[in-house]
Specification:
The chain folds into 2 domains: about 5-110, no CATH class; about 115-494, Porin (Beta Barrel). Helix content is about 15%, strand content about 45%. The protein contains 5 helices and 22 strands. The protein has helices spanning about 5-15, 25-60, 75-80, 95-110, 235-240; strands at about 115, 120-125, 130-145, 155-170, 175-185, 190-205, 205-215, 250-260, 260-270, 285-295, 300-310, 320-325, 335, 345-355, 360-375, 380-390, 400, 405, 425-435, 440-455, 460-470, 480-494. It is elongated and about 120 Å long.
Length: about 500
């Protein structure tokens, strides 16, 4: 406590003890006392401003601390509490804490780390350009309701997480890159993408990369499109049925070659990550190529071919299909064959034809899969085809990725968060699937009308209205059946 404040306290104590003394000071003495108190308050105000300037300089060393003018005594008293940079009940940081903050800020400045914001999360770059790092995430939530089936067990209303992923990606130097993602959508940890890679240029307009690890298939147009980028709530039956037995992922190697109008890839993998090393893995080889004979800022023609061959090991040779036809989140609504034992391998192939002009896009896909069986039995054959299309009524271009020949994240012209309408897309699709040349054949088709609203490049809402028709000979729901499914989705991709 300062001398002036101590004098004031002593005077008040005497006044309380002897009321007669309270009237002793003259007006000039009281005026002197008030001026002294105001000076003390102004001094305290200057000290607080100095502390605040020091903290600001430590937090942002690249900026000069503002020069704070001393307040006049009569202005200091009413505003002193509102300028505190810390809670009133806490003490300001001491000298040691301020030194630590300065050292930390200096270290950050010395590394010259830069940060940019892209798909909702920051991307960090080292000052020398050697390293980059970016968190990744995907949250996709669905609700689905089915009506019209002759089986009550199919008329369900359900909810589910199509994807709930967290991961990271980064680069080291100009050539090395990596990516890792885990998915928690089924309330269990599932490693999905996990690889390291090397990239380089061969010549102007010609480059390559090689990835090693747990890899996502490069197979068919929508089969090569991530779940966060498909124009419908579920991929086409070509992508979901003309597929290796190990499904969308396998552990192995994938070299890819890129040129100005297309790409080609070759993938050799074993099984998915499963923790089972007691038997040999199945072996799968996949190849795909796409070409854009027409490629301009507003027009693209897409041609693609692909195929795979899979060898199944004894003990891992049970075949069978249980394929989505009217939405993922109705487990009773599938085209099913039941288990088929004695498989020795599978071979599949397909073709893609489509493109876009302005805001209108169309894509057709077809494929066939032969599952080889032992003991001289004929192949179990799967055939599928689909025709899809969309139109952006807001004038945005389709999110076609010419480097990979698949869909990616859209570039929204007028995002909602900038005061625009976002990107609004109307979609339609027809798809057909048939399992044949087995004792339990099945066939079905589905017609879908949809709408997508992209608030910006990484936030979207989807609605799909699906009329489906199935005919199963295996499982609980046999015979012909049809109905309608309405699916809604909200998705965020970082």
């Amino acid at each position: 406590m300062t001398r002036t404040l101590m004098a004031s306290a002593a005077f008040l104590a005497l006044a309380v003890a002897n009321p007669a003394l309270a009237q002793a000071p003259t007006r000039d003495e009281l005026a002197d006392l008030v001026r002294a108190q105001a000076a003390e308050i102004a001094s305290l105000r200057q000290r607080v401003d100095a502390l605040e300037a020091t903290r600001t300089a430590a937090a942002a060393p690249q900026q000069s601390a503002p020069v704070v003018a001393a307040a006049e005594p009569e202005q200091a008293a009413p505003t002193i509490l509102s300028t505190q940079p810390y809670a009133a009940q806490l003490l300001p940081p001491g000298p040691a804490e301020r030194d630590i903050e300065r050292v930390r800020a200096t270290a950050v400045a010395a590394t010259d780390v830069t940060t940019e914001w892209g798909q909702g999360l920051p991307v960090f770059h080292s000052g020398d350009g050697t390293f980059s790092f970016k968190p990744r995430g995907r949250i996709i939530t669905d609700v689905s309701t089915t009506r019209g089936s002759k089986y009550d067990g199919r008329n369900l209303t359900t909810t589910g997480m199509r994807a709930l992923r967290m991961g990271l990606e980064g680069t080291v130097g100009s050539h090395l890159f990596y990516q890792f993602e885990s998915d928690f959508s089924e309330n269990a940890v599932d490693v999905v993408t996990a690889f390291i890679g090397w990239k380089n240029k061969i010549a102007p307009g010609l480059d390559y990369d090689v990835r090693v690890g747990h890899l996502f298939n490069d197979r068919s147009f929508e089969g090569s499109t991530g779940s966060d980028s498909t124009p419908f709530a579920e991929r086409t039956v070509v992508a979901t049925a003309i597929i290796p037995q190990r499904a969308f992922y396998g552990l192995g190697i994938m070299p890819r070659l890129f040129w100005k109008t297309g790409h080609a890839s070759l993938t050799v993998t074993g099984d998915r990550i499963d923790g089972d090393q007691s038997t040999s893995d199945n072996r799968t080889v996949i190849a795909r190529a796409h070409w854009n004979p027409i490629k301009s800022p507003r027009q693209v023609l897409h041609l693609g071919i692909w195929g795979f061959d899979e060898h199944l090991q004894p003990g891992k040779n049970t075949l069978g299909r249980n394929t989505v036809i009217g939405g993922r989140f109705n487990g009773a609504l599938r085209l099913s064959t039941g288990d088929i034992i004695g498989g020795t391998g599978t071979t599949g192939y397909g073709a893609e034809l489509g493109g876009y002009t302005g805001p209108l896009w169309v894509m057709a896909e077809a494929g066939e899969r032969h599952a080889r069986l032992d003991n001289g039995r004929p192949d179990f054959v799967t055939q599928a085809w689909s025709v899809s299309g969309g139109f952006f009524i807001t004038g945005d271009l389709p999110p076609y990725n010419p480097r990979l020949g698949s869909f990616g994240q859209p570039k929204v012209l007028r995002p909602v968060f900038d005061g625009g309408p976002g990107a609004i897309e109307l979609t339609a699709r027809y798809e057909n699937l048939e399992f044949k040349d087995i004792a339990t054949p099945a066939q079905g088709w589905a017609a879908t009308l949809g709408a997508n609203w992209y608030l910006n490049s990484f936030v979207r809402f989807q609605v799909n209205a699906i009329h489906w028709n199935t005919e199963n000979t295996a499982g609980i729901y046999t015979g012909k059946d049809d109905g309608e499914t309405l699916t809604a989705r909200v998705g965020v991709t970082f």
